[in-house]
Amino acid sequence: MVFTPGPSDPFYELMQPPPNETPAQKTARQKRELDAQRHSDKIDEDIKQERVEAKNQRGVIKVLLLGQSESGKSTTLKNFRMQYAKAEWSKERNGWRAVVQLNVVRSITAILRVLEAEMNGDSPVDSEDDGTSASQDSSDEESLKFIDRHQLLMIRLAPLLGVEGELKRRLGTGPEHAHAAASPMSATPFDEPETTSKRKLPEFSVRSWRDVVSPEERHSQSSAGSSSSKLDFPTDTIASCRDDMKALWNDKTVQLALKRSKLQLPDSVGFFMNNLDRIATRNYVVTDQDIVRARLRTVGIQEHRLFFERGPWGQAKSGNTHGWEWRIFDVGGCRTLRAAWLPYFDNVNVIIFLSPISVFDQRLQEDSRVNRLEDSIILWTSICSSKLLAKTQLILFLNKCDLLRRKLKRGVRLNQHLPSYGDRPNEVNSAIKYFRDKFKEIQKECSPEPRTTYIYPTNVTDTEATSTTLESVRDGVLRENLATSQLI
Ligand SMILES: Nc1nc2c(ncn2[C@@H]2O[C@H](COP(=O)(O)OP(=O)(O)OP(=O)(O)O)[C@@H](O)[C@H]2O)c(=O)[nH]1
Ligand SMILES: [Mg+2]
């Protein structure tokens, strides 16, 4: 509003043009006044905009998914999207087909490399023997009996190497060792990164999922079930190699060679190999189960948004002014990537921390000197202790319970790797309770202010069970926000 004082106003005199003003001076004065008015209007507009944004921000929850590499962060995000962003999820589902195919092909080519090394009498490909593994099978010591059938399988499966290259090209995966040796590493986001001459990361990654799974991919994917698949070289080749892949996976000598090499195959390799009859076909249709099993390493930090109608501030209205928006950030968990987490800790409401509890006998891929469970505990301790995160709600997923169960059933003894486990029963429920107590204890001891941590034993590849967990997480976050906004 423009203020125009009357003649009786003390400002009246001040606002009068100077006497004897020339036309040029008048034009300059009017321009100055106009500029000042525009500037003032702009400030008013900015303030108004900030108020609108502040009002909208009331409904925004910032959620970080944290944990070491392969802990299941991206898999948890997939579950969130499957459940709360159904329309987008179904649009991008078919884009995951090539990622699944690449997972299958890479498992096979990794096995072929082990086989080749064994046949040539080379030392095991990826030996990580630290003397803590279960006692060696006496048959391991004998030389493996390779016969013509193995040679033949290797020759027949060789075209898959070309398929691997083609799929990587299509998916735009970065150079194989993008975060290779000599990248600075830090155990926690608060530590100064240190350069070591440690090893490669033989995994593939892309900058963003969206590049891979967007429906308007630069490369036309053959649509599932379409007869146009005649031009799809990877799908055709995979389908024609199906029986040989199955023969390779089910071969006893090959399994023995894998065991001896101590190659850490991806967690999902068994799932994919057992589903070759469905996946290695010309009209393969990708399922949600396949997608949560597919591994795609995260390198950049990826933001995904979810909208909920009901939030702590009431029911959604148009423009989401009263609904609830979750901004979920999925980070790369490798030690070379942890320094990049720090800027995201500002104003974060919720951290979902994933600690895989099946990994007590495994080493980090990026630094084979470090035990994975130990790494997870260091990371959890640093997150709990951070003053910057003192007010952040912590949710802990003790993940990969299915793999823990299987490992313990196989006879791997937890107390051999974790002496403090003592003579508790070597079975999954007792182990989960032990881990739950340990992680809770750390949280209680290290948190700068008292807070409650919600702890869930999970297997995030089980989409049904995870759906229930996510509902509970959502309700827990809702309750916490109601409490902090003092509405209850
Ligand atoms: N069996 C089983 N596999 C799991 C579980 N959680 C994750 N996985 C598998 O483990 C692999 C790694 O999971 P991701 O979600 O990609 O791990 P991440 O934490 O995002 O890893 P980075 O991106 O490297 O930080 C995938 O193949 C998943 O299918 C689980 O609870 N059980
Ligand atoms: Mg990830």
Automatic annotation (TrEMBL):
PANTHER family: GTP-BINDING PROTEIN ALPHA SUBUNIT (PTHR10218), GUANINE NUCLEOTIDE-BINDING PROTEIN SUBUNIT ALPHA HOMOLOG (PTHR10218:SF360)
Annotated residues for binding of Mg(2+): 298
Species name: Laccaria amethystina LaAM-08-1
Region (Disordered): 1-50, 121-142, 172-233
Entry keywords, A to Z: GTP-binding, Magnesium, Metal-binding, Nucleotide-binding, Transducer
One Pfam assignment: G-alpha
Taxon lineage: Eukaryota, Fungi, Dikarya, Basidiomycota, Agaricomycotina
Gene Ontology terms, MF aspect: G protein-coupled receptor binding; G-protein beta/gamma-subunit complex binding; GTP binding; GTPase activity; metal ion binding
Compositionally biased residues, Basic and acidic residues: 30-50, 195-220
GO biological process, one term: adenylate cyclase-modulating G protein-coupled receptor signaling pathway
GO CC field: cytoplasm; heterotrimeric G-protein complex
Protein name per Swiss-Prot or TrEMBL: Guanine nucleotide-binding protein alpha-4 subunit
Residues that hold GTP according to the record: 267-268, 399-402
The organism's place on the tree of life at top rank: Eukaryota
Family matches, as SUPFAM superfamilies: P-loop containing nucleoside triphosphate hydrolases, Transducin (alpha subunit), insertion domain
InterPro entries assigned: Gprotein_alpha_su, GproteinA_insert, P-loop_NTPase
